[in-house]
Amino acid sequence: MESAYGLIRTKEAFMKGLFLLCAVFSILALVTITVFLLVSGIPFIAETGVGEFLLGLEWAPLADSPAYGILPMIAATLYVTALSVVIGLGTGLFTAVCLFRFCNRRLAVVIRQMINLLAGIPSVIFGLFGMTVIVPFVRDYLSPNGVGYGILSSSLVLGIMVLPTIVSVSLDALNSVPESYYEGALALGATKEQVTFKVMLPAARSGILAGAVLAIGRAVGETMAVIMVIGGSPEMPTGLFQSVRTLTANIAMGAMELSGDALSALIATGVVLFVFTLLLNISFSMLKRDKTAGKSKGVLNDKK
Q: What is the DSSP letter of 68?
């Protein structure tokens, strides 16, 4: 018996050590990437000037007088991200609601599995689909200037790519709401639609918001699919049907060709992306904490 207990304790100690090693490795990876970005990118930003780098309108790293302004790429990134999340969130949220309450259970399982399959498709396949289907459609039927590559095409592709995240997280959030909410609202005379949209959705708001934040992170960081359908011109975006370039596309298109100060500029662009992601996560954490604090105060006031 003692030998059996000793073996169990040894296994437990080994697994604890393995888990600790994985956690330390994750932290070290994050610290290493952060240090690399800051050490390589911050000096270039300081040398070029924060205003000139962030607010400059011209990107010409190989010109006789190099220019490293990334404001057009920042604007294009924000436009593409916002539009793709609007498309994906609207479609994904209504899909989740349909699967949650208005669809046959067996059919809902099949549809959810099919949607989850989208998450396993490589981004280059989405880009190829955008090039061969979405871009020609936009060019022939929607674009007033005959240009299919641009913000709208890339937003449509990204909107499809973020669907699995939004649908899955939103559906899990809806399923986590106590069924007594639904039954109680029905008992008070509300219709099925009223209960779903006025009771269940507000109750699952925190989880739905988490899905939106994950979708924003996916849209901001996507590279390959965006490169294939956005065009790639480093110009300030003025419309949906214009060839532009995002921050991630700018890094990927120059990483294998540029060197010296131009490569440092790409690393500095990575610092900007890192800050965007950090601010996004901090904002979501603060928003979630404020909502939790508000609910706690409400409960305490009710008890009083």
A: E
252, two tokens: 């990927």
Among candidates 256, 277, 275, 255, which has minimal Cα distance to 265?
255
Reported as a single tens digit per residue, the pLDDT across 176-205 is 888 888 888 888 888 888 888 888 888 888
Residues 6+ apart with CB under 8 A from 122: none
**Cβ neighbours of 81 (radius 10 Å):** 25
The reported pTM is: 0.84
Show the domain range for 41: 2-48
| Alpha helix segments (H runs only) across the chain | 2-48, 50-55, 71-97, 105-117, 123-129, 135-137, 151-161, 163-176, 179-187, 192-195, 201-203, 205-221, 224-230, 247-254, 261-303
Same domain, 161 and 40: no
Cβ-based neighbour number of residue 205 at 10 Å: 11
Tokens of 198: 């006025």
Return the percentage of the chain with pLDDT > 70, whole number: 92
Closest CA to 118 of 151, 157, 90: 157
CA distance 52 to 282: 27
Task: Let me know if residue 297 belongs to a domain.
Answer: yes
The tokens of 76 are what? 């294009």
Residues 83 and 41 in one domain: no
Structural domains counted in the chain: 2
Which residue carries 């490293």 as its tokens?
A: 68
Summarize pLDDT for 243-289 with one digit per residue, the tens.
899 988 888 888 777 778 888 888 899 899 888 888 887 877 776 66
d(CA 214, CA 170): 11
Closest by CA to 265, choosing from 35, 30, 43, is 43
